[in-house]
Amino acid sequence: MQRLLTGIQSSGTLHIGNYFGALKPFVEMYPSYESFLMVADYHSLTSLKDSSAVRESIFNTVKDYIAVGVSPEDVVIFKQSDILEHTELAWIFDCLVTVPFLMQAHAYKDKVAKGLEANAGLFTYPMLMAADILLYDADVVPVGEDQRQHIEYAREAAAKFNNAYGETFKEPREYINKAVATVPGTDGKKMSKSYGNTIPLFGTKDEIAKAAMSILTDSSGESPENVYNIHRLLRSEIDLAPIYKANKGNYKASKEALIEDLEAFIAPMRYVRENISDTDVANILREGSEHARAIAEKKMIDVRQKVGVTL
Ligand code: AQP
Question: Which CATH number fits domain 3-180+278-307: 3.30.420.40, 3.30.1360.130, 3.40.50.620, 3.40.50.720?
């Protein structure tokens, strides 16, 4: 059976971009694979400096995973920081790639351009992500378009290691659903936690309504493009055509229709989520991390021998 693996940074509230770009494809695909879903808590340290926020986000991310339909019985749900081999392998990859290579990463350049702190962790992020994937010999990684280059970087890290030390890592392929590759935020640009333009996946009805009402609309046009581009994630274009025709020029009505559909789609998942306790999360992560660790430890015994640090 092929391996499927993806992860999300536990750096705040998940948004509908994370859902449509990564989680929904994962939920649809995982029954046909041996599947792994990671909470990328070490990645979150590139932006979060408050320990209670880090801890809370870990619990929240696992609850989100289960609420969207990931069964802990069928998927290995684990926490990145529980498996020390991730940071260890990332260091080995850091020593194989060059600074100019990492400087080409779009995600890094975009974040720095937006004024985010250019810490070294953010810069070397793609090599930690490569380790996350390659340790498990993942075949397929469902991600949004913004992560395409990082999967290329993971392939490059695998190829560099294999060339230097002999065949060790499998080169993974990305799965990107073209229809939802880049979910736009309330400003029409890529929806992103750190850009403050998100619609939270598990917000209250009021939070979702507030975010949807803040979607930028072009006052000269008749159809609110930014509203429509989010709405089409929830309903077919055939379904939406009469709604947008009837609301032509009335942006508020279109936003209200979107809020109603968002609420109908999120409410059942929110209900599931409310019944997951912190103890459930701790148990799921303990079991998942044990399973993942056994695979990662085995892989790293081979890697350490190949690079020469095992005496
Ligand atoms: N707008 C988006 N459209 C489609 N997919 C998206 N993803 C994120 N935003 C969109 C996908 O969600 C997965 C997990 O993302 P992440 O939080 O680990 O990192 P990210 O891509 O950096 O997400 P954000 O919201 O942009 O977080 P910040 O701002 O903290 O970096 C990935 O598969 C991603 O493609």
Answer: 3.40.50.620
